[in-house]
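Ticket reopened. Same input as before:
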Amino acid sequence: MVIGILGAGQLARMLALAGKPLGLQFIFLDPTPIACAAELGEHLIGDYTDKALLTDLAKRCDIITYEFENVPLEIIEFLNQQTPVYPPAKALEIGQDRITEKTFLNDLAIETAPFQAVSSLTELETAMPTIGYPAILKTRRLGYDGKGQVVLNSNDDLTSAWQAVKNAPCVVEGFVAFQREVSIIASRSVAGEIVYYPLSENQHEKGILRLATAIPNDALQSQAEQLIHSLLIALDYVGTLALELFVVGDKLIANEFAPRVHNSGHWTIEGSETSQFENHLRAIIDLPLGDTKTLGYVAMQNFIGNIPDIKTLLSIPQLHLHLYNKAPRKGRKIAHASLRTDSLMHFNDAISTLTELAASSDDS
Amino acid sequence: MVIGILGAGQLARMLALAGKPLGLQFIFLDPTPIACAAELGEHLIGDYTDKALLTDLAKRCDIITYEFENVPLEIIEFLNQQTPVYPPAKALEIGQDRITEKTFLNDLAIETAPFQAVSSLTELETAMPTIGYPAILKTRRLGYDGKGQVVLNSNDDLTSAWQAVKNAPCVVEGFVAFQREVSIIASRSVAGEIVYYPLSENQHEKGILRLATAIPNDALQSQAEQLIHSLLIALDYVGTLALELFVVGDKLIANEFAPRVHNSGHWTIEGSETSQFENHLRAIIDLPLGDTKTLGYVAMQNFIGNIPDIKTLLSIPQLHLHLYNKAPRKGRKIAHASLRTDSLMHFNDAISTLTELAASSDDS
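Engineering reply: fixed in the latest deploy. New output:
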């Protein structure tokens, strides 16, 4: 069976690594000539809007999926006329616009931060008394890893913020005074089977995820499962879905969802009975889903821009290294490491060594 | 870093899958045009004795290894003049001849079955009163998976057995009345670091491994570690090494060793903190070795000739499927499945379902 993937970055790479033992072949479409998933299949180099390439991809694949949520919707619809594409276009369509996304979530009784659409500096100024400070101004479309986001602390920030987003349609969101940031990941198969992963607790810096820690048996697990369950059903979703959440007391407030495998689920490779990548593939080719039980104490640390010395890293005996075969570059996610231990003491020791190493090589 | 592998079968495939997250690239040399590891790197198609191809391989690789023990020794020596080859030639040289191998083991005080070299029917007849019945006649060289082996139950079997081995130089071995067959796998790095895996208990049928079960904390573990330790040191070994053993009471009797990753260690992919494949690669490129702790109750079932229905297999929630992307063919190892559970009851249930499924599709 041949799987087509739009995008050939690290998520596509990890999907392909998970898919090889299932006997799957991969064809990637990505305009970047040097793409890190390419070594695991065939790489079609060209624009995502190149109809001839898309037709070629659709003809040669049994199922198509994607590794990023900014795929133009018309491409998915074009491909879908010939070959099934999962996750469904609806998830992309809703997720690509922050206003549509938040409205959709609210309609499902999933709480979000207060928000308002703004398309001019005047509208922003008018919105602020309702939203209050601090707040965040985000472009409605095409944001990720904190890109296209500006923090607003007072009326003095509004003009420069509006210049920073270059007059793009935006959403202004009230700041959520959260205690923790978490995410829940779930997979739903063509047959409708659903599995949930334990919550991940996520630490960001400069808008980029740094450390994600599995928190099985968290008191908020079942609440989070209910939220993502209603989302999966409302989207008639197929594949792996991630929902980012703020924890405020005993309440979960949705930040955003990602219709794909997610960075906060990379620890599932070693830390779960079945990884988010394998379950994404099983879901879209309609195989039974794998168990999502966590194996011990588990966490993942991203390496941004640069990688610490590999011998030093691997001298942590329960560390698992994932190099993406990407060149070092400021602010770029180029690798991660997972830890899995059966002792909380060893885990805490190893995490503190690992985060120090990551900080020492960080170039973000 | 580029790793060259002689052979592009399933062992090379699993090595490459383990090596990708370490950022390794692979070049395989294998005469078979369709080889199942080829999709994970570059495949040089040609004879193992093709000097031009070997030179090309050596030039383009940082380190070379192999997936089968019948590599002609002169090839390793030729490659080694340009690029380091691990495991060392000595391990191959000794392992390729059953007489040399058993003598070497005995010299290390590692007990074997009684044996005698025989190179004619007359010598076989002369040996039998000392060896006794039942016994096994094996070709000295080029045997694997029970190939080139004949069981001898009485003097009446000798003539036909000698015809079956086609007059090849042989060893006749006394039969060991074992209670269990086990193996121990260990890895030793360029720097001399050694790690041991827990014993695997192995069930064979028609000379082919069927089921391998991890048996951590077995009473014979430390005895097995001592045996493989002396072998690793005596061979100045680098890489992953497997030693097959018979258990007779509280004694371990060596059958043979394999200077490579081994089928009885496939359960280490999910069942160990670090797999035998990853530790083989770490060992030969001189990285620290990974922890070998077992994760729960673990076993591996081979699929011979054919594969059971995949949906049925994957409906066992803690089953991990490894398809080698090889065409079904009588007697051919084409896939395996691992089980990993944290409950002995679930494990036993799942194993019995799995072995029944394997038996139902078996074509050996």
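Chain A has a mean pLDDT of 96. Residues 180-361 of chain A form a domain with the D-amino Acid Aminotransferase; Chain A, domain 1 fold (CATH 3.30.470.20). Please confirm and we'll close it.
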